[in-house]
Amino acid sequence: MATKGTGVYTLMDHAKLLDPNGKIARTIALLSQDNRILDDMLFKEGNLPNGEQTTIDVGLPEVFYRLMNMGTPNSKAVTAQITENAAQLEGRSEVDVKVANMNGNVGQFRLNNAMKFLEAMNQKQAQTLIYGTNLGGEEYVGIAPRYSDLSASNGQNILDAGGTGSDNTSIFLVGWGMDKVFGVFPKGSKAGVSHQNLGEIDAFDANDNRFRAYSDLWQWDNGLVVKDWRYIVRVANIDVPDLVG
User: Fold this and answer.
1) Distance CA 12, CA 29 (A)
2) Distance from first CA to last CA of the chain, Å, rounded?
3) CA neighbours within 13 Å on the CB side: how many for 1?
4) What are the tens digits of pLDDT across the range 6-22?
5) What phi-psi label fits residue 162: left (phi over 0), alpha (psi between -120 and 50 degrees) or beta?
6) What integer is the mean pLDDT of 223-239?
7) Contact 9, 44 (CB under 8 A)
8) Mind telling me which InterPro entries this protein's record contains (predicted)?
9) What is the pLDDT of residues 41-94, one digit of tens each?
10) Beta pairing partners, 203
11) When you count CB atoms within 10 A of the terminal residue's CB, does the N or C end of the chain come out lower?
12) 123 has pLDDT over 50
């Protein structure tokens, strides 16, 4: 687990700071029970409404040996400015009022329904963190697509385990840190999942006929920043059938 110093926060730390009454903290506590990476991954508020703009080093300055009475050429590091966008993950629930009331405890019924949405969002975030591609513009780019080319500049951090089958897997080693690898949420927003109780509304069936429903909206805006590619290592092409427990 990462060592956390002053100003370096997990989702739970952000929740405690932003929501002293504990509502968001309870939600994130539930998330962390099913997604242990949230206990370890560090997050910060982005410097843009859509994520984080950061400057990364793509080349070191050149240095020289010299002799007496000989000069040294000037050199400089090569940097690039990139923007890591946060993706908007949402879930919307509409439950027939009659169905909820039949349960005898509307609050508990809606809580049970909410837990299913939290689990779905948990699984989606975990999947996107590793495999997100942004090919359609909705997701953020996950870890695996960033470390998929042995000939790329970060290819030296990809270790090929030699598996050639169709059921290979990978192991990722990540060094979390604000100058290394971290999660980001949009500037001016709150960390983690937000929930809106939309109350009792007119919902529509498949034939556009109305019925009364309890409605909830779940939102989670989140992205990934890899500021220093050296702090992720991928062990790729691990042959699963050959693993021995």
Assistant:
1) 7
2) 23
3) 9
4) 445 455 555 555 555 55
5) left
6) 94
7) yes
8) GP7-like
9) 899 999 999 999 998 887 889 999 999 999 999 999 888 899 999 999 999 998
10) 211
11) C
12) yes
Gyration radius of the chain's alpha carbons: 23
Residue position matching structure tokens 């949402």: 90
Backbone angles phi, psi at 168, to 5 degrees: -75, 160
CATH T-level assignment (fold) for domain 11-61+74-242? Major capsid protein gp5 fold (3.30.2400)
DSSP the chain: -----TT-B-HHHHHHHH-TTSHHHHHHHHHHHH-THHHH--EEE-SBTTEEEEEEEEEPPP-----TT--------EEEEEEEEPEEEEEEEEEEHHHHHHTS-HHHHHHHHHHHHHHHHHHHHHHHHHH---TTSSSPP-HHHHT--TTSTTGGGEEE----SSSEEEEEEE-B-TTSEEEEE-TTS-SS-EEEEEEEEEEE-TTS-EEEEEEEEEEEEEEEEES-GGGEEEEEEEEGGG---
Domain ranges in the chain are: 11-61+74-242
Residue 44 forms beta bridges with which residues? Answer: 184
